[in-house]
């Protein structure tokens, strides 16, 4: 079981099937939207 975590706000974005327990870091939609608004 894998978990997708936002590297900016540390919220859990999603879970996915994997052979190992894995944590992947990405950016959630909220953090992506904030970056676009600030530019």
From TrEMBL:
Pfam families in the record: SR1P
Protein name (database record): GapA-binding peptide SR1P
Source organism (scientific name): Cytobacillus praedii
């Amino acid at each position: 079981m894998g978990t997708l975590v936002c590297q900016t706000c540390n919220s859990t974005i999603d879970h996915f099937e994997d052979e190992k327990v894995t944590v992947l870091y990405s950016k959630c939609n909220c953090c992506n939207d904030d970056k676009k608004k600030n530019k």
